[in-house]
Amino acid sequence: MSTIRLLAVGWLFHFKMISRSAFEGLGNVIYPLFFATVAFFVFQAGNSPRTLLYASLGSAVMGMWSSVSTTAGGAMQRERWWGTLELLVAAPRHFALILLPITLGMATIGLYSFVATLLWGRFLFGVHLSIVHPALFGLSVVGTVLSFGGLGFLFAVSFVRFRAAWVLGNLFEYPVWLIGGFLVPLALLPSWVHPISWALAPTWGMNAIRQSALGGSPLDDLAICVGLGVGYVALGVLVTERVLRAARLSGSLSLT
Amino acid sequence: MIVAARIFGIGGLTSFRALFYWLNPWIYVPSLLVAPIFQILLFAYIGRSAHLRSDGFYLIGNALQYAAIPCLFAMSQTVSGERYQNTLSAILVSPAGRIPLFLGRSLPVILNGAFVAAFSLAAGSLILGVHLPASSLAPIALVVLIAAFSCTGLGLVNAAISLRVRENAVLSNVMFGFLLIFTGANVPLDALPGWMSTSAQGMPFTHAIEAARRLVAGSSLGDVRGLVGAELLVGAAYGLVGYAVLRWFEVQSRRHATLERS
Predict the structure, then answer these.
(1) Backbone torsion region of residue B252, taken as left when φ is above 0, otherwise alpha when ψ lies between -120 and 50, otherwise beta
(2) A44 and chain B in contact, CB less than 8 A
(3) What CA–CA distance (Å, rounded) separates A163 from A3?
(4) For A23, which of B31, B39, B169 is closest by C-beta distance?
């Protein structure tokens, strides 16, 4: 019970802090809208059979991913700047339980971006969001948010000893937009890219959201997405222990 | 005159080098050399998915437009970086002429922006297999330089606003986003609503991107001199506005004691 409380309170605390940051909160909602606008115009002007709804859903998930990728990479760096990293590491609970709510909070901000992009498409481009399976759609969005949080967690712990961790987070924004199948079908990408796409939860989350909105069976995609998210968290816990042990041994947690 | 030249040259170079205490290769390479290539690939594939334009269209548009990142962010850093290091008031209290002071800081930014765009163009063309005719390379290099100059003019406006706005990273990202939509980098101007394509005529990159596309298609530099001239004019206009706003905000900051507001 205390673990759930720690996760819940940590999530709420960090969600409120991120929401009040112009860069991480407002910026992460506004910035993807520019890319969404370009996507709407491109699909509107092109003669592809893919609809604006296809672009709208893809752009919305792009925004969700931006919220995680651009901030998760630098999550530990931020704690380091604030001088709180050592305190968090020294806390009596496993560090993963302290870090996970931070990245879940970031992923939750992505929900703002998701909704904002859908509304943007609705009111500026007249994209009607007709959802075939509303319940499964909601479930797919929540599952995708959670798996994004898991991937963000893995990013955050993997980059903890890298001074410029925020750059790596930014660096992963475009590639995942591209190979996650958000606006480009995987079939258009070179075949060697496909296994990389399949290892990414965003790919399956996007599939699940599209299937549930446009009609189809999203459960398999959703299960893989959530499964990968759990896998990222498990891997992240292992990395956390290894990285923290190395940092303690070398006294390099603060990187000063 | 000599003092002004020293402030322009040495001051500008020193200021630019100061960026590299944090803009080291671990940040420079991923942010300014790798990211633009992925932006080019992303939009080239979106273009393929939407059946709109060729890879070359997106390659040229995005390679040039990405110069906005170094130009906008580096120029805003000329103010916010100084503020962060508590040196802004020392600079603005000095009797140094503001024109050489800020233009000196702009020159390395222009060169860096042009380098980023040229690198992205070269790397992107190799990856996507887009052929750039040898005869077009020198004129394109000139157009790239002018595009970077033009965006640095907007960057000066950005720097001026940074005297009053705390979140200049958000502001720079917003400017970057507008340039992504309006300038024809990804959406043909004739596919945009009329007011947007008209607004685009007053924005950096619009004319340079069009000029570069025509050069690759076989036009000579003389054929695109109107576009090149328009891009220069846009850059100069933003530079003048930026300088005027900078002076105005400087006076206001002194009057209201808001210079160090961080």
Answers:
(1) alpha
(2) yes
(3) 30
(4) B169
Backbone angles phi, psi at A200, to 5 degrees: -105, 125
Query: Are the beta carbons of A31 and B171 closer than 8 angstroms?
Result: no
Whether residue B7 contacts residue B104, with contact meaning beta carbons closer than 8 Å, is answered with yes
Give pLDDT tens digits for B83-113: 777 777 787 788 877 788 888 888 889 999 9
- Chain B neighbors of A188, CB-CB under 8 A: 45, 48-49
Mutate which: A20, A47, A166, A184, vs B, most B CBs within 10 A = A184
Nearest to A177 among B42, B47, B169 (CB): B42
**B180–A38 C-beta distance less than 8 A:** yes
Q: Tokens 């790596």 correspond to what residue?
A: A168
For helices B35-50 and B55-65, the axis angle rounded to 10 degrees is 150
Using the beta-carbon criterion (under 8 Å), do A23 and B167 form an inter-chain contact?
yes
User: Which member of B24, B30, B45 has the closest CB to residue A171?
Assistant: B30
Side chain identity at residue A110, one-letter code? G
Q: Which residues in chain A touch residue B34, judged by CB atoms under 8 angstroms apart? A: 171
Determine whether the interchain pair B181/A164 forms a contact, defined as Cβ–Cβ distance below 8 Å: no
Give the residue extent of every domain in chain B: 2-19+30-256
Tokens 């005159």, residue? B1
Tokens 């328009």 sit on residue = B230
Per the CB < 8 A criterion, the answer to whether A176 and A69 are in contact is yes
Residue pair B99/B243 in contact (Cβ under 8 Å)? The answer is: yes
Longest dimension (CA), chain A: 59
Residue A163: count other Cβ atoms within 10 Å of its Cβ: 14
Query: CA dihedral in degrees (B27, B125, B145, A38; nearest 10)?
Result: -80
**% of chain B surpassing 70 pLDDT:** 97
What amino acid is encoded at A116 in this protein? Answer: A
Restricting to A residues 124-183, those with a Cβ less than 8 Å away from any Cβ of B are 162-164, 167-168, 170-171, 174-175, 177-178, 183
The Cα–Cα gap between A104 and A246 comes to 26
Q: What is the pLDDT of residues B176-219, one digit of tens each?
A: 999 999 999 999 999 999 999 999 999 999 999 999 999 999 99
Q: What is the spatial distance between Cα A30 and Cα A21, in angstroms, rounded to a whole number?
A: 13
Judge whether A145 and A64 are in contact, CB under 8 Å.
yes
Question: Contact, B74 vs B15, CB < 8 A?
Answer: no
Residue among A26, A31, A34 with most chain B CBs within 10 A, to mutate: A34
Chain A residue closest to B45 (CA)?
A184
Give the tokens for residue A199. 């290892």
